[in-house]
Amino acid sequence: MLYQINLREVTYALSEALDYVGIDDTMHGKRVAYIACEIAKKLGWRQSKLDKLILMAMLHDCGVSSDVAHHSIISHLDWEDSQIHCAKGASVLQGVPLYQEFADVIAFHHTHWEQFLPQIDEDIKLSANLIFISDRIDAMRSQFGAHLTHEKEYIRSTIQKYTPSMFAPKITQAFSEISATDTFWYYLEADPIHYYFSEWIEHGEIETVPFDFLKSIAGMFAKIVDAKESEAQPHTPIVASLARTMAELCNLPLREQEQIELAALLHDLGKLRIPDAIMGKNISLSDDEKVRIRRQGFDAHIILRQIKGFERIVQIIFAYHKTLKQEECPSLNGNETIPLEASILVIAHKLQTLLQNADENSFKGNLEVANLLQKMGNEYQLNPLILDKIKSHFETCYKKDVHL
Ligand SMILES: [Fe+2]
Ligand SMILES: [Fe+2]
Ligand SMILES: [Fe+2]
Fold it and tell me: Separation of 135 CA from ligand 1 center, angstroms?
């Protein structure tokens, strides 16, 4: 089916999930986008080029899912392994029609100006170097601050010191000129940067795009979330495929099936704000750590509610997290009816976990899946007719999962 979406708004909102990787130092992507755009304006770039630069800059660190990796990126001006997240980010973008043209720039966003091979296209070099310089400016700002004159001067002189080896002279020159005013630095604060981009989003066109186009964008963010736990064992696409199959079996309208699939792809967005150390913990969690885990549903909600056209997806994810919370804290349960879409998502999620953790020696295959479905169907209030239908088709779900 077709969806009416402002693609600037979609990218802005979803890139917030990437900014969550900074845990307490969020909005890195947006600040890099602002700095790059202001320098490019000074260089006389036209609006269509500025628009692409903003999108690329917001997504520039899509190869980073871990807060430990983010910390090392922010704490060093340059480091040996910087190319790893560049290559990862480029490969993530390549699979998404809306973003694939950005892959080359992202692949070079930590390449030193004097190390570019002569055959690289001039536009790619300039865009990559604009993102590089903006990224390093923001890294220094978060490390040393930019509230005082001497902090700003430190950043400006460091950039100058590494020009032309790291940064193109004309880019540094433009930065020196625009950063001479206090206003330039004020815009790096949370409120002003939000207003800066809300105007840009308002001027974005509402486009009509097919479901698969949106699915590729949601799938990219699912991949980034999954990479936080394990790159080898994808979790989200399997949950999404199972949920879609169940929605089909329930004979839900096509739009509802698609929205359940999109919701499944985006259900874990809030996980990017959970520190790696808590995610990987096997022993019991402290109360503070439990709070951090529990707020992931809220964080996903806050990102997605910014996107006009995603209202139904937001409701589904909200209902899903609410159901899980009631399960963890029975005192919250007021014997409420669980919405069907939340039941589908919870069941798909538990089924994926069972299949992923199934011990080959003791796993009883279809029988175990059938038993689990029966138990969950009762627990999550699935209509018995629907449950029977899902059970009799569980083999399809099971095979789908195995082959994904
Ligand atoms: Fe980076
Ligand atoms: Fe960065
Ligand atoms: Fe999940």
Answer: 7
